[in-house]
């Protein structure tokens, strides 16, 4: 794609429509010739099969933990305490003298449900893990690096945006920044840690 097209929204739209039309024409020609076998992924097949139908799927909302918890975590990825990222989150919480059972955690999939849950739980503090959670809750468009590391407010509740543990697995240089964020959370929450 030329630089001229990349910087022009109308040109991008026109180019996109051209590519879709070319692909549609290609599929029609394949069908006419009897070639109905396409070597594509299952996800791509589903998209092709549902082409033109209105998608009604929404991100599902899931959560776990005590609704009486003073610490509320919104997870951009929604894996909670699973996998390597989840194990790292448990280590971070343990270092804060918290456990996975002592916090309330939810995914950032459906923010209407997140807002309702925050209102119902009324936590003392909210931690957002990752860009999606932070941007959505605080209604900002900046990269996470620009607004993490300091408290924000959501309906009078203190919010600490920070990097997601899965990112720390890929870029360990952010671990120190997350720990500094968590120390601020501990100080505000009255939590004590061993280091």
What's the SSE blueprint?
Layout: H1 3-6, H2 9-32, H3 42-49, E1 63-65, E2 71-75, H4 83-95, E3 104-107, H5 111-121, E4 125-129, H6 131-138, H7 144-147, E5 152-154, E6 157-162, H8 165-170, H9 175-189
Parallel strand pairs: 2-3, 2-4, 4-6
Antiparallel strand pairs: 1-3, 5-6
Describe the structure.
Helix content is 48%, strand content 13%. The chain is an alpha/beta fold. The protein has two domains: 3-49; 63-189, Uracil-DNA glycosylase-like domain (Uracil-DNA Glycosylase, subunit E). The protein has a six-stranded mixed sheet with strand order 1-3-2-4-6-5, with helices on both faces. The mean pLDDT is 84.
Question: What's this model, at a glance?
Answer:
By secondary structure, the chain is an alpha/beta fold. The chain has helices at residues 3-6, 9-32, 42-49, 83-95, 111-121, 131-138, 144-147, 165-170, 175-189, and strands at 63-65, 71-75, 104-107, 125-129, 152-154, 157-162.
